[in-house]
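seq as requested:
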Amino acid sequence: MPPQAALVNGQDPRQNSYYKHPAKKLNAKDHQTLEDANMTMDHDILLEVSVDTDRSSHSGVHSIGNELALVPLEPPRSSVSIAGGPTLSNGHSTGSGFNLYQGSSVSSSLTTMDDNYDIYRGERGGLAGLQNLGNTCFMNSVLQCLVHTPPLVEFFLQDYNDEINRDNPLGMSGELALAFGDLLRKLWSSGRTAIAPRAFKGKLARFAPQFSGYNQHDSQELLAFLLDGLHEDLNRVKQKPYIEMKDSDNRPDEEVAYECWKNHMARNDSLIVDECQGQYKSTLVCPECGKISITFDPFMYLSLPLPSTVTRAMTVTVFYCDGSGLPMPYTVNVLKHGCCRDLCQALGTACCLKSDEMLLLAEVYENKIYRYLENPLESLTSIKDEEHIVAYRLKNGARKTKLEILHRCPDK
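struct tokens:
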């Protein structure tokens, strides 16, 4: 092999398909970023380093000869790595090859970035936004919620390398947690500059193809996947034991709850469990023998109904039976689950009902009285919004004779 070629992972880089058939040639002198060049996380970069003894002394890079290296494109890492460990380059320690002087501009910039990670304790952090990559507002909203959750911020701004479980078959080899941690660090160290989460979206599309592309998706489904994926990548349990659940057997709820949670923690122990999981009580009664079975099941999120109003607006036309006034519509607010008595009281206040008067409710359909609402305890849920309700002002104690006058053509 010629001396100017470097072995990559013990192999001649010319044997690599990327070396033989480069997909795209990038000029190092261009000012475009990798994002502008449409480079994704699955692409490889063939890097050629030129020797310049005069400039190398200023750049802080040792002269290592004209070498070739195949560098997989990974999320950018800081001088303390994405998880706070030793400096990494292409997944390997940079103890050999490239070294950075203490006074170099690159080293100082990385040190400044790491110092900015401490701004979480101040008032300057967490002001960066996320660029919309195209119908990714569902993802950006979820990410902003997670990266501003204090326990998650404190965890991912520190060294969490030892917390990553790369051997969990239910996880993603820690890659999802690393990608999320890298994005969180960018958002908390970039001031107010908007970040394009392309690297994170690439990882997301890799492990969850349903979120690939640029279509709209459900935010709750993404949040559920992220919480579950982060939990498995950060699960402190390396070997999950088999545990047989026991019946409650009329034991106190405190004892059963503690036992169920202890069994759950024996297989699931992570930051997500500590901050985002709980358990609820389930009671099952046998309809035949009447036996009661009580279990405590873990949960990470609950679906709750949207709050609804407890009142409804109803419009009722009030008629004067003595002809002293013209029919007048009144709109009143009553309880949704109230009764006709509540409607009469609200109408009486609105139309200034006298103490010696009362109201008789009726439903009108096709210009005819369809039914009378004489029962004061009848629920208002039986009255639909599209129904036409009228009320007649009558004297208390007066003898009432119901006379319906219809205007229609005589029957043929």
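The chain has a mean pLDDT of 75.
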